[in-house]
Write a sequence for this structure.
């Protein structure tokens, strides 16, 4: 416990964790919007099912998880965050780099070369952000579980 502030070390770690995951979610959302704009510019449309999945998993669930991070439901928030950003990473890698589709960075519809380059860059940046986010959530889940095991039923912020 910090005598000057009256705040425990674990409370400060939880606050820093919440801020870091919120920042990653904000970066994910910004790059997702940028990537979507580039998709429209290149006319690389998603199927209705893919669109539903992307709105749900790329936008709604991470926003819900961030909201829950700042409540007493941190464990649920971490699981939602890990699941959504992990699914986003897998979906993005598969459809951008593996599966032959209009969304594959090597098979984009005709367009300006600079737009193709920006689309590929946005896909790579989002994959890195999603990887960092999923790994961060997994690490915090493990750390949070360790604290819960150590302190038993004691509540953490």
């Amino acid at each position: 416990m910090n005598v000057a502030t009256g705040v425990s070390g674990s409370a400060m770690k939880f606050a820093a964790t919440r801020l870091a995951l919120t920042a990653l979610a904000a970066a994910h959302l910004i790059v997702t919007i940028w990537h979507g704009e580039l998709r429209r510019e290149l006319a690389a449309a998603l199927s209705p099912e893919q669109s539903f999945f992307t709105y749900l998993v790329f936008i709604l669930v991470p926003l819900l998880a961030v909201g829950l991070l700042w409540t007493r439901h941190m464990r649920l928030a971490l699981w939602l965050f890990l699941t959504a950003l992990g699914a986003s990473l897998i979906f993005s890698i598969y459809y951008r780099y593996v599966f032959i589709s209009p969304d594959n960075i090597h098979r984009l519809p005709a367009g300006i070369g600079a737009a193709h380059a920006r689309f590929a860059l946005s896909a790579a940046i989002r994959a890195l952000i999603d990887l960092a986010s999923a790994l961060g959530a997994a690490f915090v889940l493990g750390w949070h579980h360790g604290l819960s095991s150590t302190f038993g039923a004691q509540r953490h912020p």
User: Anything to note?
Assistant: The CA atoms of residues 62 and 91 lie 15 Å apart. The chain has one domain: 21-151. DSSP finds four helices and no strands in the chain. The longest helix spans residues 113-151.
